[in-house]
Amino acid sequence: MSSRSTGLYARLGAMMALEYFAFGSWKPTMGLVLSSNGLGRLIGVVFVFSAVAAILSPLFVGALADRFFPAQKVFGVLHLAGAVLLALMPQAVEQRESALFVVLLFVFMLFFQPTQAMPNNISFAHLLGRMRVFPYIRSLGTLAWIVAGLVVGQNGMSARPQIFYLAAAVSAVLGVYSFTLPSTPPLQRGERFRAGDVIGIGAFPLLRRRRFLVLMVCVLLTFVPISTYNDYGSTYLDAAGVHNVASIMSLGQAAEFVFMLLLPRLLKWVGYRRILITGACTWVVRCGIFLVLTHGQVWLAMAVVALNGITTDFFMVTIYMYVDRMVAPALKAQAQGLVFFFQLGVGSLLGALVASSIYNGVIGDATHSRLSDWTPIWLVAGGVAVLTTLVMLFFLGRDEPERDRVTAEETRAPDGQASHPTAPDTPATDTPATGGTSRPASPAAEGGHAPATSGD
What does the DSSP 8-state code read for residue 317? Predict the structure, then answer.
């Protein structure tokens, strides 16, 4: 390996680590911070706005990064702007200025959401012919998330607004560092911007396929337990007597890291369908454990948090890989964009609305809650997880998505015109567009690396 390559890998790895350290500083325990400061009813609101931001932000950031400015500069500007907004949040929380906090967080998420995919895209642009290195670079992000949780937890910051100061400092460092990254020019300069490209509108005809439709329905259903855990899990663990919540929750990312390394081999041995069903079943198990968890059972809390590695890798990540095998090369980007839209857009929005309505109905702004108060929350989440598992068992079909691969021709409108301009079904390269949209790059089925995720 040449020193030049080693230097490039180190620079990209540092970018990935800083991105996920900043995210991991505030995301896991933000709900606990709000509930501990009398703003529990805001938890659902802020996550609803986060989902709306995931839908809206790519529309303007995609137009800029993909067509006008180098990706690394857009990445830097977004993080510098985000750092300013993060630094304003602690005071809003401490003074219980709920309206101000919601506005700050919504604007912040508009800047932040596109950055989740940009480290992947910038890395892909400079790893031509060396794509097998990417999983190792991406793994540094997961490790940094774990370190962030340990730093927050071991310093007693899990329930304190100061987590936003830590995130602001790291975001500012990353913003400045981004301008030193290798130049990643826009690859779509001069092309007309289509808002529908961002959400994969050209792949909507895929919903006529039963298997694809079943997957998208299951994505929407699964975001009810996902949002319940992501939005309120830290608050529940605190009610269960778990100390250093941020440190405990980092076990989920540690397990995710391990299972990500195992996933390609498991897919080969077990198959996509069984892996997906296992991921759905794991949510049933997790909700069941949350229901029987008693105060002070830290070991059981650690176990249920660690199961997050299976639910994330076996369901969220595997769906991207499954869809990648279902469609012809010309449709991959559009199909992955549609999956992203269903997951972090519509799914997150639906899940946040359902979870927040139940939480606000039984707990609300209470700074302390009993475990018995949470029973209806986990019953609903577990019931939806059971429904998701049954839908997959009876309607997903056989485990050979490539046998009836969807081609671009099948997505054409009845009058013979394509529902969206597509290229011929020719083999695609491993290098996706390198711009700044928040649509993740298609993960190679054999590589098993993850698309951009929320880290949860």
Answer: I
Instruction: With H, G, I as helix, E, B as strand and everything else as coil, classify residue 444.
Output: coil
pLDDT tens profile 197-247: 555 566 778 888 888 899 999 999 999 999 999 889 999 998 898 888 988
Whose tokens are 């690859």? That residue is: 187
Name beta bridge partners: 353.
Answer: none
Quote the pLDDT of residue 401: 55
Q: How far is CA 312 from the centre of its chain?
A: 9
CA-nearest of 100, 66, 41 to 333 is: 66
H helix or E strand, kind and range, residue 58: helix 42-65
Long-range contacts of 374-377 (CB under 8 A, 24+ apart): 374/236, 374/239, 374/290, 375/291, 377/228, 377/232
Q: Which residue has the tokens 């986060």?
A: 50
At residue 37, φ and ψ (nearest 5 deg) are -115, 25
**How many angstroms from the chain centroid is the CA of residue 246?**
18
For the chain, the distance separating the N- and C-terminal CA atoms, rounded to the nearest angstrom, is: 34
- In this prediction the pTM is 0.74
- Report d(CA 175, CA 76) in Å as an integer: 4
Q: How far apart are CA 57 and CA 55, in angstroms?
A: 6
243's tokens: 């100390």
pLDDT, tens only, 305-330? 999 889 988 888 888 888 878 777 76
Cβ atoms of 189 and 68 within 8 Å: the answer is yes
CA–CA–CA angle 135, 453, 196 (5° rounding): 115
How far is it, in rounded angstroms, from Cα 82 to Cα 21? Answer: 14
